[in-house]
Amino acid sequence: MYKFIFQDKLPRRPNRDQEFSQKIHVLATWFFNNIQDGRIPGHRETRQKWGSLWFAGKTKYDIALDSSYKYEQRRNLRGLTMVDKFYEVFSADPGFVIANDFDFDVPIGNDHVLTGTFDLIREVDYQGNKLIQVIDWRTDPYIPRDLVRKRDIQLVTFDYAFRLMFQTKPDQLVYYSFKSGELYPVEPRPPREIQRLISSVNNICSIIENNLYYPRQDWQHNICRWCNYRTPCAHWR
Ligand code: SF4
Questions:
Q1: Which member of 29, 105, 173, 237 lies 3.0 to 4.6 Å from 155 by CB, making a disulfide possible if both were Cys?
Q2: Which pTM value belongs to this model?
C-alpha cells in the first residue's frame, strides 16, 4: 500500500464501501460526543443523523434522479439496521467515556512511530467491577472467528498504544460488530502478540527503506479487505 500511495502516487479515492464505513464511524463518534456532553441522543435523532451523513450534500431530486438510487437506498437501509442495533446496545449502557475518536502517536520498534485513532475507550460496570474497554468499531460484512479476532492487527495495535499512553493494560479489547450489533471482547494480548506487532513494523519499515516491495496480501488480518489498491495489487504479480 505504501508503494502505491507514496511511490507510485496513485490517487486515493475511497470507494463507496469505505465511505459507508467512514460514515458509520462518524455516527458512532457523534453519538459518544453527545454522551460526553451528558445526554443520550434520541433514537429518531440518531436515525436522522445517519440519513444526513449518508445522503450528505444531496437533495431529494438528486437522490430520485440518481441511476444508482436503489443501490444507494439499499445501503442506506443496511446502515439504518446497523444504527438501530448500535442504538439498542449503547443507549442502554453507554458507560463512562474516557476517549472518543482519540488520536495516538507512540514510539515502536527501531525508532519508528505508530500513529492511529482509538475509536472509543470507556469504563463500564461489569459484575460489580469497573472495566476499561478499548472498542474498535467494525463494519465488516462478516463476523470473524474468535481466533481471527484474537489475531486482529487493529486490536493488537490498540492494545500496544493503550499500554504506552496509559502505562497499564486495558481490561478488554472489544470488537464491536455493526453487522450483528454485538460486542466481542478479547483479552489483552499476550507478550508474543505484542512482539509480533513490533517485528512486523520493523519488517515493513525495512522493506520501505530498502525498496523491496512485493504484494503481501493478508486477508486473515483484514488489512487487504479495506485497501484501495486491491486491483493494481492483484495485477502486479
Ligand atoms: S491489497 Fe493488501 S498487499 Fe496489496 S497493497 Fe493493499 S494492503 Fe497491500
A1: 173
A2: 0.88
